Description:
This protein is α+β, with helices and mostly antiparallel strands. It contains 6 helices and 8 strands; from the N terminus they run E-H-E-H-E-E-H-E-E-E-H-E-H-H. It has a single domain (6-217), classed as BirA Bifunctional Protein, domain 2 (2-Layer Sandwich), CATH 3.30.930. It has helices at 9-12, 52-59, 101-116, 171-176, 193-201, 214-217; strands spanning 6-8, 44-46, 65-74, 86-96, 122-127, 132-141, 160-169, 185-191. A 6-stranded antiparallel beta sheet has the order 3-4-8-7-6-5, with helices on both faces. A two-stranded antiparallel sheet has the order 1-2. A hairpin with a 4-residue loop joins strand 5 (122-127) and strand 6 (132-141). The chain is globular and about 45 Å long. The protein starts with 5 loop residues before the first strand and ends with a helix. It binds 5'-O-[N-(L-tyrosyl)sulfamoyl]adenosine. 5'-O-[N-(L-tyrosyl)sulfamoyl]adenosine binds at residues 49, 51, 75, 77, 83-84, 87, 89, 129, 131-132, 135, 162-167, 188-192, 194-195, 206.
Amino acid sequence: xxxxxxxxxxxxxxxxxxxxxxxxxxxxxxxxxxxxxxxxxxxxxxxxxxxxxxxxxxxxxxxxxxxxxxxxxxxxxxxxxxxxxxxxxxxxxxxxxxxxxxxxxxxxxxxxxxxxxxxxxxxxxxxxxxxxxxxxxxxxxxxxxxxxxxxxxxxxxxxxxxxxxxxxxxxxxxxxxxxxxxxxxxxxxxxxxxxxxxxxxxxxxxxxxxxxxxxxxxxx
Length: 220
Ligand code: YSA
C-alpha cells in the first residue's frame, strides 16, 4: 500500500504512542506545514517515517495483516554521506494471532541474506521506539571499511551501517486501533532503501541519488 506524504500529527505521532510534548518526538526532526486549525493547533506535517501507515492500515482492516508500504519521508536535518532531508522508507507490518519476536528475526535475517549474500554480517541491538516493545535496530557491516571502522566517513568510525528499525507492535498501538492486544500480536519494521542500495552497490554518498547527475544515474 501507499499513503499520504503530507500527514496529520494524529497518525505520524499520536496513534504511534507519541503524545504531544513527549521527548521521543525529538527523534524525528519534523517539517511542519504552515496551517492552523480552528483550535489554533498546527496538526499537519511532512511525514517523518512510513509508520503512520501502520495505524491507517489497521484502522481499515482486521487481522491477519501482511503489508509493505514504500514511500517518501522528510526530516528537518543536516545532510551528510548517509543522511538526506528527503529519503524513502519501506514499512513492513504483520499482525496475527501468535506472532512472536522469532518471526521478526527470522524474516529480517532472511531479507538480509537474500539482499546481501550469506557473508555479510548482521547486527541487532536494542533500540527505543515508542510504538514497539521490545524495539531493535538492525545494521550491516560497512562495505567501505569492511567493518574496520576507524577513520571511515561512511559508517562514522563504527564499522556498521544502520538500515532499519523494527520491533513488536506496542499493545497500546494495537488497542488504539481497536484490536485486542491479548489476542493479537505483530511485528513491524521500517527500512531505508537508499542505505540498502548504498551497501549493495558501494555508493559512498546518499546525496548522489538526488543530485540528478546523469553520469551517476546512467550506471543503473
Ligand atoms: C521502527 C519500528 C517499527 O515497528 C517500525 C518502523 C520503525 C522505524 C521508525 N519508523 C524510523 O523511522 N526509524 S529511523 O528513524 O531509525 O529510520 C529508519 C531507517 O530510515 C533508518 O535505519 C535509515 O535506513 C532510514 N533513514 C532515517 N533517516 C534517514 C534515513 N535515510 C536517509 N536519510 C535520513 N535522514
